[in-house]
Amino acid sequence: MTTASLSLILLVSCCVVSASTRSEQCPPRFLLAAPPSARVWPFEIAQPLYVGARAIGMGNAFTAMADDAAAGFWNPAGLIQWQGVKVFGMNKISDRSEYGFDPKGIAYTYRETAFFWGNKIALGVPTRDPDYTYYALARQIGSYLAIGGSLKFQRRHPSDHYQVFGYNPAYDLALLTKPKPALKIGLLLQNDQIDLSFERVTLGLAYRIQRQRLRLTFSLDLGFSRRSINGKRILTPSLGVELPVNELLQLRMGNSSGDWTVGAGLSYPFQFTTVRLDYAWINDTLQRSNFISAEITF
């Protein structure tokens, strides 16, 4: 095992301890963005947290991974990592009386260009219109770099017509680079309105270790928010690991700012398509939350 591999493993281990300790001292991520009297879940605003059971299983550390259809939310630049069409949908499968969350999306990549449409809607939450539509575009530049961006629109409820766009437009800018075959670096700049300031900046690292039959991927996200508590900016670390057991089964584990997660995936190639089913559990509420995702690749 190389020095870089050992260094990354040590970094991830330290972050796990830090995140676990931090969860005892600080409120969870969804409370940091809200007044003490209100609970605002991270998916109630235009950011990618909780989109995709695979991402949740990896502790919501997906900015540098971003290699499935949910990339349109997490890092639009990641859409160029495959060719063809990917369609996905996700559903919360337990205790929907607490809240519901059902994102979906479709991505198409041809050569160096990719397009994406996605929607994420939360149900049973205090926010009036937690319904967002994303339109994303990505372009590969050279062999090691891709850039991307998305326009985000909030949709009104109730409405007597389908809203192609909506109101409260915002945008994201993204970058993905692969300086080495085993290393990816992602950057996501998130904006809540049309101006030149960014509410959140997320830096992601993903490192793959491959030794004979062992293939292990570590992922780390560091999120920085302009919002502050007691005059201090908010830093939200997330980390995850994915272990492919074989060509069909993948196991995952992570920590999302103090909330532990586990997950598993099952993929199967058919003659003209590949189907993947993912499950994730996150220790985010008293009832915990369970999600399933399905993705089809053409």
In short:
With 298 residues, the protein is mainly beta.
Task: Describe the 3D structure.
By secondary structure, the protein is mainly beta. The chain has one domain (3-297): Porin, CATH 2.40.160. It has 4 helices and 15 strands. A 14-stranded antiparallel β-barrel has the order 1-3-4-5-6-7-8-9-10-11-12-13-14-15. It starts with a helix and ends with a strand. Residues 1-37 have low confidence and may be disordered.
Overall 3D form: globular
CATH architectural label: Beta Barrel
How can the largest sheet be summarized? 14 strands, antiparallel, barrel
Q: What fold name goes in the CATH topology slot?
A: Porin
Amount of helix: 10-25%
Oligomer: single chain
The N- to C-terminal Cα distance equals 36 Å
Q: At the first level of CATH, what is the class?
A: Mainly Beta
Note the total helix count: 4
Question: How are the strands of the largest sheet arranged?
Answer: 1-3-4-5-6-7-8-9-10-11-12-13-14-15
List keywords for this structure.
Porin; single chain; 14-stranded antiparallel barrel; mainly beta; 298 residues; globular
Write the SSE topology.
Blueprint: H1 3-25, H2 29-32, H3 53-57, H4 71-74, E1 84-92, E2 100-101, E3 104-110, E4 113-123, E5 131-141, E6 145-154, E7 167-180, E8 183-190, E9 200-211, E10 214-229, E11 232-244, E12 249-256, E13 259-269, E14 274-282, E15 289-297
Antiparallel strand pairs: 1-3, 1-15, 2-4, 3-4, 4-5, 5-6, 6-7, 7-8, 8-9, 9-10, 10-11, 11-12, 12-13, 13-14, 14-15
